């Protein structure tokens, strides 16, 4: 009996580990047809994707919003003007740029954000409170990190008295990440809190960039290693910058959700770029996890992941064109869920029945 209980307990934990393995995904093609190229740039908590599309370079590029009901083009102040969509929040507000100015779209209606006269700007992220970050550009094209909030436009301090800075993301707590030049003319990942810039350092090299932050304050990005020849994705956990393992070569982390899942890309020995998922200290090529990957396609990079586990990716399609797509986790089949739950319950009751029992090896 004891041996039988031990087997049940062992099986329950074994099955639990299988259930917690890397998820499988189904792909939804968000691209166009023919010569049109599309790429993703943002993903909402409900799975709405924003991205950009261009056809043959003859028509101005257009930002778009993709939902389950189709794709909607974001128009500028005039139909012939190019638009760029870079991020979306839970309310469906989209930010990006048009007319070389930072812009926000609310229900399809565009608003140009405050920009100093004679200068250009771009919005790169928006949180669920409607706070926007990005950068403004001087007449010499030097960039300065900026925030558009309830007080209007505010520029963010850099790491040095002079030098460029860029803001790439903002969480619901108002923490902002990006990069800025140091006093030694290097570029380092930056976290802005309460208007103060903190240098997050590097993985041993001289350069780093922060690309995203979740609501827990975890920051991801990429950094050069010592020697400056290799770049790795990183996770900053509030204390230290951690090197994210990569299957091969150079890697970059582009997004992190509130569950701690990180996505990005790496460069395979072939030199081709592959989309990558980091979860539970394991790095997995997303191409190996998609059940319906079209023939001839390669998932090249993952640009966003939400708390549902959905992932916004850019693929190379069979025509070797950029193609936007959304990956959605495949639910675990109900028989497996029930079997796993039953095994776990058996293990639990076995332990409750013999709380002080030591099982023989």
Which helices and strands, and how do they pair?
Blueprint: H1 2-19, E1 25-29, E2 36-43, E3 49-55, E4 62-67, E5 70-74, E6 83-88, E7 94-98, E8 101-106, E9 109-112, E10 120-126, E11 132-137, E12 143-149, E13 152-155, E14 165-170, E15 176-181, E16 187-193, E17 196-199, E18 204-213, E19 219-225, E20 231-236, E21 241-243, E22 251-256, E23 262-267, E24 273-279, E25 282-285, E26 298-305, E27 311-316, E28 322-329, H2 334-353
Antiparallel strand pairs: 1-28, 2-3, 3-4, 4-5, 6-7, 7-8, 8-9, 10-11, 11-12, 12-13, 14-15, 15-16, 16-17, 18-19, 19-20, 20-21, 22-23, 23-24, 24-25, 26-27, 27-28
Q: Can you walk me through this structure?
A:
With 361 residues, this protein is mainly beta. It folds into two domains: 1-23 and 332-354; 24-329, Methylamine Dehydrogenase, Chain H (7 Propeller). Helices cover 11% and strands 47% of the residues. The protein has helices at residues 2-19, 334-353; strands at 25-29, 36-43, 49-55, 62-67, 70-74, 83-88, 94-98, 101-106, 109-112, 120-126, 132-137, 143-149, 152-155, 165-170, 176-181, 187-193, 196-199, 204-213, 219-225, 231-236, 241-243, 251-256, 262-267, 273-279, 282-285, 298-305, 311-316, 322-329. The strands form seven sheets. The protein has a four-stranded antiparallel sheet, with no helix packed on it. The longest helix has 20 residues, at 334-353. It is globular. Residues 1-20 and 348-361 have low confidence and may be disordered.
């Amino acid at each position: 009996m004891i041996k039988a209980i031990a087997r049940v307990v062992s099986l329950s934990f074994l099955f639990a580990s299988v259930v917690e393995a890397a998820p499988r995904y189904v792909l939804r093609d968000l691209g166009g047809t023919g010569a049109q190229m599309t790429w993703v740039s943002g993903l909402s908590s409900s799975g709405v994707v924003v991205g950009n599309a261009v056809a043959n370079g003859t028509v101005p590029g257009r930002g778009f919003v993709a939902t389950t009901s189709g794709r909607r083009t974001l128009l500028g102040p005039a139909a012939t003007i190019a638009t760029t969509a870079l991020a979306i929040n839970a309310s469906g507000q989209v930010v990006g740029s048009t007319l070389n100015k930072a812009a926000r779209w609310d229900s399809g209606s565009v608003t140009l954000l405050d920009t100093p006269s004679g200068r250009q700007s771009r919005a790169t992220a928006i949180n669920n409170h409607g706070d926007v970050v990005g950068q403004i550009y001087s007449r010499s094209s030097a960039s300065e990190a900026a925030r558009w909030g309830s007080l209007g436009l505010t520029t963010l301090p850099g790491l040095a008295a002079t030098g460029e800075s860029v803001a790439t993301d903002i969480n619901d707590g108002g923490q902002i990440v990006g990069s800025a030049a140091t006093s030694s003319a290097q570029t380092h990942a930056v976290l802005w809190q309460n208007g103060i810039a903190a240098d997050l350092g590097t993985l041993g090299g001289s350069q780093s960039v922060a690309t995203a932050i979740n609501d827990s304050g975890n920051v991801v990005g990429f950094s050069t290693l010592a020697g400056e020849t290799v770049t790795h994705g990183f996770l900053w956990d509030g204390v230290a910058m951690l090197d994210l393992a990569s299957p091969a070569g150079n890697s970059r982390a582009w997004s992190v959700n509130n569950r701690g899942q990180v996505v990005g890309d790496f460069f395979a020995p072939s030199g081709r770029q592959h989309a990558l998922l980091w979860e539970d200290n394991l790095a997995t090529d997303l191409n190996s996890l998609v059940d319906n990957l079209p023939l001839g396609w390669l998932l090249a990079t993952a640009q966003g992941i939400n708390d549902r586990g959905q992932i916004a990716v850019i693929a190379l399609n069979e025509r070797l064109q950029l193609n936007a797509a959304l990956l959605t986790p495949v639910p675990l089949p109900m028989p497996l869920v029930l079997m796993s739950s039953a095994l776990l319950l058996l293990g639990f009751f076995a332990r409750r029945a013999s709380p002080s029992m030591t099982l023989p090896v």
